[in-house]
Amino acid sequence: MENNNPVLELDNVKSGYQNIPVINGVSLALPPKDVLFLFGRNGVGKTTLLKTICGLLKTRSGQIKLNQEDCTNWPTHKRARHGIAYVPQGRGIFPKHTVRQNLVAGLRACPDRNADIPEQVFEYFPILKERINQAGGTLSGGQQQMLAIARALCGRPNILLLDEPTEGIQPSIVQTLQEIVRTIVEEHHVSVLLVEQNFEFGIELATHCMVMDKGEIVKEGDASEFRNEEVLEEILAL
Ligand SMILES: Nc1ncnc2c1ncn2[C@@H]1O[C@H](COP(=O)(O)OP(=O)(O)OP(=O)(O)O)[C@@H](O)[C@H]1O
């Protein structure tokens, strides 16, 4: 029987910076092969939440479970080895390193030390094979986003945290990215927590949607409930 236990669970998580509280008690459950779309205005805490989940920021209270294990106090690298991959806003690739070196860096998160770059990465993003010896910084914005996602896949994650993947990307590439994320969810059994300002992009991919305001989840439900003019107006008015 297929295991439907959540791959990621947050229970009343609080976090922030120094003495500034930002996340004020967030709870969520991400099922396998699910795309959870987290939407909200600038500055409400979406990036802070992703950083807390991957361990770049400390959880002040509450609990985070990764594949049923309490990871609340685990360091970032341990969470990466246990399945979390974070693709930050602005991509975070190494601009002076080649495409290959960027991908090899992603292998460090893989529990299997002998693992190589997965072939599917080049099927999804053939351009990366063509540019394999080129410096990451010479790629276009869209290609850098592809590289960032490809690097994340090198760690064989089962949870992908994507922060604003369409930011600054041409519309034609946005469409390609959407199809690839969908394929990755299907073929790699990956669940995605997606933060995105492009509501249409996010809601088309999503199975579930959450709206955040001032560090709290103020609305959540099936993505289908959000594909509705009235609800959309309500959210955009927040
Ligand atoms: N390093 C930091 N130190 C202190 N405060 C920070 C830091 N980074 C972000 N903040 C503050 O935390 C709050 C939430 O920021 P966060 O980046 O998580 O929001 P966001 O919803 O992701 O917005 P955006 O879409 O603009 O990235 C903001 O008030 C921001 O100013």
UniProtKB/TrEMBL annotation:
Record CDD domains: ABC_TM1139_LivF_branched
SUPFAM superfamilies assigned: P-loop containing nucleoside triphosphate hydrolases
Molecular functions per Gene Ontology: ATP binding
Keyword Cell division: no
Domain ABC transporter, residue spans: 8-235
Gene3D superfamilies in UniProt: P-loop containing nucleotide triphosphate hydrolases
Pfam family, one: ABC_tran
Record keywords: Amino-acid transport, ATP-binding, Nucleotide-binding, Transport
PROSITE patterns reported for this sequence: ABC_TRANSPORTER_1, ABC_TRANSPORTER_2
Keyword field contains Acetylation: no
Family stated for the protein in its record: Belongs to the ABC transporter superfamily.
UniProt-recorded name of the protein: ABC transporter ATP-binding protein
Origin species: Fodinicurvata halophila
Taxonomic lineage of the native organism: Bacteria, Pseudomonadati, Pseudomonadota, Alphaproteobacteria, Rhodospirillales
